[in-house]
Amino acid sequence: MKRFLQLCFVFLFLCCPRIATADDETESLDLLVKTLNSLDDVKVRHALLRGMLAGLEGRRNVEAPQGWSKLSQQLAKSKDNNVRELSAQLSQIFGDRKATELALVMLTDPTADPNAQRTSLRLLLTHQNQEASALLETLLDNPALRLDAIRGYAMVENASAPTVLLGRYPKMSPELKRAVIETLATRKRYAEALLSAVEAQTVSREEIPAHVARSLKAILGDRFVRVFGEVRPIAQDRQKLLARYKKIVTPEKIADADASRGRAVFTKTCAACHVLYGEGGKIGPDLTGSNRANLDYILLNSVDPSYDVPTGYKMVTIVTVDGRVVSGVIAEEDGTRVVLKTVEQPRLVIAKEDIEERKISSKSMMPDGQLEKMQRQEVIDLIKYLRTTEQVEMAK
User: Fold this and answer.
1) The sheet that has 314-320: what strands, in order across it?
2) Is 111 inside any structural domain?
3) 18 and 73 housed in the same domain
4) Could you count the other beta carbons within 10 Å of the beta carbon of residue 106?
5) Does residue 282 share a domain with residue 211?
C-alpha cells in the first residue's frame, strides 16, 4: 500500500504540474528515483521514465534529483533499449554533459535509428544546444532527418540558416519548400532574407501561404507590404465576397461537381488544420460533425474565418526571449510551460521562462482568403466535398 501511495503522488505531480510547487517537484523527483532504484520490472520502469519525461517536457536546466547519477549509470546498462533511451533523454534534461555528447554523436551515426535521432535532435535544440544547431546543415543530407533539420533552424537561431536553406530551396520538394518558408518566418533576420528572396524571385510570391504572410507582416511591417502587397482583412469585403460565391456555387454547379476532386482540394488546403472523417490536423475544429449541409455556414467560415472565433481557437502569438516568433492555439498550459498547436507542428512546447511576449488575437488560425487562391471549379468541388455525408475516394 505504501508503494502504491508513493506512485500515486509521483504521477499526480507528473500529470498535474500546474498544482505543484518547486518543492513538490524536487520531492517528487527524489521519490521517483528511489522508486526506480527499488524496482526490477522493466515495464514499470519504462512507464515511470516515460511519465517523468512527459512531466518535464519542454524544460531545461532542471536540477538532477538525488541519486540520479548512480541510477542513470545502472539504467544505461539495461537490456531494454527503451529504458536506456529514456534514461539518456532525462540525463540531458538534468544537464549531464556526457549524455549530451553521446546524443550529438548519435545524430551523425548512419547506423542509428532515425526515430531516436529525431528525438535527440529535438531535445538538444530545446536545450538551445549550439553544437546540434551547427550539425543541421549536415543533417539536411540525410533524407530521414531533412524535414526535422529544416524545422530545427527555427528552434535555435543560426546565422547560416537563410543562406543554407535558400541555397537548397530550388531543388526541394513542395513539402520541404513549405517547411523552409515557415521556418524563415519565425525570426526577423530569417524573415528579412526570405523577403529578399521574394524580391529576387528566388521564392515566388505564390509560394508564401496566407498564414506565413500574416506572420511576415507582423515581423517586418511596412517593408513586407511594399514587396508582397497589403494583407487586407477580409472582413472589409465580407458581404461582397459572400454574394460573389453564392453566385458561383449554385445548386446546379454543386450537382455537377466532383466530391473526389474536392477531397483533393481539402487535403491540400484544409487538412493541415482540420479533421474530416477522421483524417487531418487537430488545430481547428473537427468538421465531421459541423453544420456542413448549410451552404451559408460553409461560405461564411471559409470567406471570413475570424467572424466568430471560439476562445479555444483564437490565435496566440508568442515571442521568445531569443527572438523566435510562433503562432498557434493553446493545447495545454500549466505553471511551467505552454503547449501550442501550430500549422507546422501539432505539439510545440515552450517553457514559460523563455516567453518574452504573448498576445491573444481575435483572429482565427485559419488565414483569410483561402477561396481566393483557388480556381472556380476547385471552390465548387471543395464545397461539394464539404457537404458530403460519408467519405469519398480522393481524385488522383
Assistant:
1) 348-351, 337-341, 325-333, 314-320, 355-364
2) no
3) yes
4) 18
5) no
How far apart (Å, rounded) are the C-alpha atoms in residues 352 and 334?
9
Whether 385 and 265 have beta carbons less than 8 Å apart is answered as yes
The mean of the pLDDT values for the chain is 86
For the record, the C-alpha cell of 68 comes out as 540520479
What cell was used for 288? 465531421
- Per DSSP bridges, beta strands 275-276 and 337-341 are unpaired
Residues 290 and 381 in one domain: yes
Q: What is the pTM of this model?
A: 0.75
Q: Is residue 130 in some structural domain?
A: no
Interval 71-95: pLDDT, tens: 999 999 888 888 999 999 999 999 8
Quote the number of domains for the chain: 4
Q: Is residue 266 part of a domain?
A: yes
User: From CA 320, how far away is CA 302, in angstroms rounded?
Assistant: 31
Scored b (16 or more CB within 10 A) or e, 246-263 reads eeebeeebeeebebbbbb
Task: Return phi, psi of residue 341, to 5°.
Answer: -105, 120
Neighbours of 30 (CB within 10 A): 14
The DSSP element (H or E) to which 193 belongs, if any, is helix 188-199
Domain range enclosing 197: 159-231
Q: What is the pLDDT of residues 309-352, one digit of tens each?
A: 777 778 899 999 999 999 888 988 888 899 998 877 888 999 99
